Structures are given as C-alpha cells and as structure tokens.
C-alpha cells in the first residue's frame, strides 16, 4: 500500500503543469496541532515499520481535516524525539472532510505534508462534493487542498444544476466566494469531452470551461447539437447562458470549413 500511495501522488505531480508545481505549498507543520486517531476495535502499533493501524470506525483528525474509514494506517517519522504522522492510508467506506468539501471513496491516501487526498473506488466511484459542484471519476480523484484543485481521471463527470461536463480527465480549479463557499471557477477537460445543458449537447476532443461567464472553448472534432440540428467544426465557443454557439477558425488562424445539418419538423411533429 505504501508503494501504491507514493505512485499515485507522483502521477498527480506529473500531470499538473510546471507552472502549478512551481508554486509554494505550505506543509502541515507543528502549528497545525497533533493528529488524533481513534477506533472501535483498537489501535495496533507496528514499531519496526513506523506505523499505527486503527480498525473499526477509525477516525483521524488534524487541522480541521477528518479522515474516516473502516481501517486507517498512519505512517510516521521520528523528528527530535517526537512522532510526526505524515501519511494516512484509508480502506473501506472512506470519507475525507473539511469545512468546505467532502470526498468519498473505497480507498484513499492523504498526504499531510502536501495536504493532498487521492481517492479510489471500483464498485463505488470516488466523489468530491463542495456544496456547489459534485465531481466523480472512475479511476481516481485527487484534491489538492492548498491549491484548491481537483483532478478526476477516467470517465470524469462534474455536475452543477442542469449542466454536466464529462471527459476522460477533468481539472477543476476552485476559489472561495464572498460567503466563504468553495466554487469552481474553471474546468479543463481532456479527451472525449461532452458538455450537456437542458437544450444543447457539445462534443470535442478538448475543452476549457469558464464558470463565471458560462462559456466553453472546444477544440477538435467539435459537434454542437440542439434537438435535430447540428453544427460540426474543429473549434467552437459555446455560451451556455445565452445558448449562442460560434464555430471559430483554427487556433493558428487558418480558415476551416464548417458544416451545419438542419432538420425541419414535419406537420405531424
């Protein structure tokens, strides 16, 4: 499990852009306070491996973040004679929660140094809820608390009211609004992108969605469908607020031919 945890966290770092990784991220230092671990069926101390194993409704809490699971393994290091827990590995009915979000999974790894949670699930897809957005994924879902970024991989889906964004990989960037609630500001979608509203369905290979303006830029094999009418092209701007969609020239400024298919309804329809 330790190797899997390290591999998952390394894969997240490789996926994020160099600009994001260059940002300074504060760790969970001594000012965050101690880690409290409790469980119904006892806590086992495996001294040679520097770990504690808590079983039965296990719960760990530190700095406003709570990790709950059937079984929790806490890995620690010794620093100046003190025990410093730096990673929690959770198995079974996992819930990772803080004041502004809750994550769910069958398994999870929480890195206390980087404040990064990696959630996994086979029977039940990992899920992140912020109060305004619900994000699910088939393979894994990572949440970077300090950067306020979620990365969902494998049939990733983000839902808010009547809008759904689906892609192979979704990167959601969050900010706090005036009321202190965590809201998504931008979503980057890669691979088999589908944006669905009450009236339109837009497809593309890649997409960037701006939440405030409710506009999406789609690129690659773009199809925009409303009812029986369809527009095809290589690049498009879709305004989900006004319902206006525009087929655009290629990213290099080249003019590319677009195609529209319009099916009039019959009298009986």
TrEMBL record:
Keywords: Signal. GO terms for molecular function: glycolipid transfer activity. Gene3D superfamilies: Lipopolysaccharide (LPS) transport protein A like domain. Residues 1-22 form the signal peptide. The keyword Signal applies. It comes from the Bacteria. GO terms for cellular component: cell outer membrane; outer membrane-bounded periplasmic space. GO terms for biological process: lipopolysaccharide transport. Residues 47-123, 139-243 form the Organic solvent tolerance-like N-terminal domain. This is Organic solvent tolerance-like N-terminal domain-containing protein. It comes from Nisaea acidiphila.
